[in-house]
Automatic annotation (TrEMBL), chain A:
NCBIfam families recorded: PRK08275.1 (NF006131)
Domain Fumarate reductase/succinate dehydrogenase flavoprotein-like C-terminal: 448-556
GO biological process, any: anaerobic respiration
SUPFAM superfamilies in alphabetical order: FAD/NAD(P)-binding domain, Succinate dehydrogenase/fumarate reductase flavoprotein C-terminal domain
Protein name: Succinate dehydrogenase/fumarate reductase, flavoprotein subunit
Superkingdom to which the source organism belongs: Bacteria
Any single Pfam family the record assigns to this protein: Succ_DH_flav_C
Organism lineage string: Bacteria, Pseudomonadati, Pseudomonadota, Alphaproteobacteria, Rhodobacterales
Gene3D superfamilies, sorted: FAD/NAD(P)-binding domain
Species assigned in the record: Puniceibacterium sediminis
Keyword Oxidoreductase: yes
Sorted UniProt keywords: Flavoprotein, Oxidoreductase
UniProtKB/TrEMBL annotation, chain B:
Keyword NAD: no
Gene3D superfamilies reported in the protein's UniProt record: 3.30.70.20
Transmembrane segments: none
Protein name: NAD-dependent dihydropyrimidine dehydrogenase, PreA subunit
Organism (species): Puniceibacterium sediminis
Keywords attached to this entry: Iron, Iron-sulfur, Metal-binding
Keyword Nucleotide-binding: no
Occurrences of domain 4Fe-4S ferredoxin-type (ranges): 10-42, 47-76
GO terms of molecular function: iron-sulfur cluster binding; metal ion binding
Length: 580, 80
């Protein structure tokens, strides 16, 4: 294994789904269900059984809109406000209307959701305004349940192939070029439609631990979706709206205030005082968190030590088996007992992820990108605050729409020279006798991301970043060296990480205002609704560099009253209350 | 420009006595999202899984899915 082999195979399919984590499997299932004759291929860089952000499951749904607890109108309003108004509501509203059906479908797959004594869904309030959080008692079984459905539907699964570039022709998508991560052999997949569910750009900033893979996101989510969309000419929206999350320091997993909050846990400063009213992740909340960290009352902690033994035991039971189960090992290693000590928290490295913020490949309410036949769903598509249920639901939209799109559609012609050019680009690091290993290219890129791109954002620093990134790119293109196919996968990831770093800098420089709290805190500029109440769309310019345009926010489906617009800016606890 | 051999303590350990790679099992290698595990032939000629690449997200599918409980995921030292 890992020996570099020479090979090129071509396969054809009707619908190619890239990414077998959350959105991808649902897209594949829905496409096949709607058109049982369609040949659907689900491709993953890892193994679909355990790939993606939910490889070990999830503790609950963070954004379920369940009749009787929340309405689509209320949810759409909440997400619009949390996202400072920059939101095409149609996609959020459609999600809010249809996610309940997806919950019932997941239930039929054997994934259970918590119910109270009356058999009603036991939904908890975590957000600033509405009630949407639904615990999943057997959340560790999500991937197994999905995999069973994929086998049953006879979806063609291709594991350990990494897509590196999309193919286009005749003004639409034509397929993708892929590389085997264990042999470096090429696979060209011709497809009538392509659905991308490649997850977040989670290996963009460097975690404070310095460990390259100690990221908040699954470290295999290194931003290929963003880079491939860019190189194919698709539009990417609001990339300056970074993802930054409040996490357990060093461990870099979620503190899970969403789990602990409804049971009485909360985020506190070093004195054990509450300083934010709401633990729901938003840019405004992160700004308060950052201010407390930097201020004299920091650092910040998750406080559970005031809770009853049974409550703490329940929290432990949930948090130590699902999503990031090594959390228990981490606390044990440091001798942290939730009953006696608060859990130190910190802010995460930056990334792109619409799951919790809003940066992503631009899509509409049908998950269509700006390229015909190309879809995106989940963390890499720009529907804000979408979380796991959003990935499932928009994955479903993509699958259903693609099933219709491919009817009477033939393969688009593409330029075969593109395949040869990509082979030369990909294999270049294997043709050298020595040079810079991918991990050093990656470390340097990500260290520069931290030094220069992390908010508060400063113009001169971001310009320096661009200069340094260009130097790293030169080193990467002229001198990167790999010894086996596994290292080649890391080399390709290093190149997508650098693409994402370039896009992060360019997008942040373009929007000359501050918005989304800490996510786009440009210290030299105030919020400017007159000029910047719009999406920013980044595309690949004629010179190969990022080009920018403004795009109007679509007229709201659900009106927001003036007095509601800034609800998320009133997060800091009144000091007279905090002292109690 | 030679490459150095810098030592690093890997987070995933495999109990050789419990590992059944010799019988053809590759479950941990198959499920790892970062693809960091491989099968090695040990000094006595038997096979065992081991962590070849120090690129661990400490996510645990290898430990959870191992049929004999041979795999343990520790936290990488840098963040422990």
């Amino acid at each position: 294994m890992d020996e570099i082999l020479d090979g090129l195979t071509q396969i054809d399919c009707d619908i190619l789904v890239i990414g077998g984590g959350t959105a991808g499997p649902m897209a594949a299932l829905k496409a096949k269900k709607k058109n049982p004759e369609a040949n659907v291929v689900l491709l993953d860089k890892a193994n679909v059984k355990r790939s993606g952000a939910i490889s070990m499951g999830m503790d609950g749904l963070n954004n379920s809109v369940i009749p009787g607890y929340a309405t689509p109108e209320q949810y759409t309003k909440e997400i619009t406000i949390a996202n400072d108004g920059i939101c095409d509501q149609a996609a959020v509203y459609r999600y809010a209307e249809e996610c309940y059906g997806i919950i019932k479908e997941l239930d039929s797959f054997g994934i259970r959701f918590q119910k109270d004594q009356n058999g009603e869904y036991d939904v908890k309030k975590v957000h600033h305004i509405g009630t949407y959080v639904l615990p999943m008692p057997n959340g560790d079984t999500v991937k197994k349940a999905l995999y069973r459905q994929l086998r049953k539907a006879r979806i063609n699964i291709v594991n350990r192939y990494m897509a590196t570039r999309l193919l286009t022709g005749e003004g639409r998508v034509a397929g993708a070029i892929c590389v085997n991560t264990r042999t470096a052999e090429f696979l060209v997949v011709r497809a009538k439609a392509v659905i991308m569910g490649l997850g977040a750009a989670g290996r963009l900033g460097l975690p404070t631990s310095g460990y390259l893979y100690g990221t908040y996101e699954n470290a295999s989510n290194s931003g290929e979706g963003y880079a491939m969309a860019f190189h194919a000419g698709a539009g990417l929206a609001n990339l300056e709206c970074y993802q930054i999350n409040p996490l357990i320091k060093d461990y870099n997993g979620p503190a899970c205030a969403y789990v602990a909050g409804p049971l009485g846990g909360y985020t506190a400063n070093a004195a054990g005082e509450r300083f934010i009213e709401c633990d729901y992740w938003s840019g405004q909340m992160m700004q308060e968190f950052y201010d407390e960290l930097q201020g004299g009352k920091g650092p910040v902690f998750l406080k559970l030590d005031h809770l009853a033994e049974e409550t703490v035991a329940e929290i432990e039971r949930v948090l130590h088996i699902v999503e990031r189960p090594t959390r228990g090992h981490f606390h044990a290693g440091r001798g942290t007992d939730y009953r006696k000590t608060m859990i130190e928290m910190h802010i995460s490295e930056i990334g792109f992820c619409s799951g919790h913020s809003a940066s992503g490949v631009f899509v509409d309410e049908n998950a269509r990108t700006t390229i015909a036949g190309l879809y995106a769903a989940g963390d890499m598509a720009n529907v804000p605050h979408n979380y796991m249920l959003g990935a499932f639901t928009h994955g479903a939209f993509a699958g259903e729409d693609a099933a219709d799109y491919i009817k009477d559609m033939d393969f688009a012609e593409f330029d075969h020279a593109e395949v040869e050019a990509e082979r030369i680009r990909v294999l270049a690091p294997t043709k050298r006798d020595d040079g810079i290993p991918p991990n050093q290219i990656e470390y340097k890129t990500r260290r520069l991301v931290n030094d220069y791109l992390q908010p508060p954002k400063v113009t001169a620093k971001m310009q320096l970043a661009q200069k340094r990134f260009a130097e790293v790119r030169e080193d990467m293109e002229q001198g990167m060296y790999v010894r086996d196919a596994h290292e080649l996968m890391r080399a390709l990831e290093a190149s997508t990480i650098l693409d994402c770093a370039d896009m992060a800098a360019a997008a942040s420089l373009y929007r000359t205002e501050s918005r989304w709290g800490l996510y786009h805190n440009r210290v030299e500029y105030e919020r400017d609704d007159e000029n910047w109440f719009c999406h920013t769309i980044l595309t690949k310019g004629a010179d190969g560099q990022p080009a920018h345009a403004k795009k109007a926010v679509q007229p709201y489906v659900v009106d927001i009253a003036d007095e509601e617009k800034d609800a998320y800016y009133n997060q800091r606890v009144d000091p007279s209350v905090a002292a109690e | 420009m030679p490459l150095s051999q810098t030592a690093t303590m890997v987070p995933v350990t495999v109990n050789k006595d419990l590992c059944i790679a010799d019988k053809g099992c590759t479950v941990c290698v198959d499920v790892c999202p970062l693809d960091v595990l491989r099968i090695a032939v040990t000094d006595d000629g038997t096979k065992t899984a081991y962590m070849k690449y120090d690129e661990c997200w400490y996510c645990m599918p290898c430990e959870a899915d191992c049929p004999t409980g041979a795999v343990t995921v520790n936290l990488p030292y840098l963040l422990k």
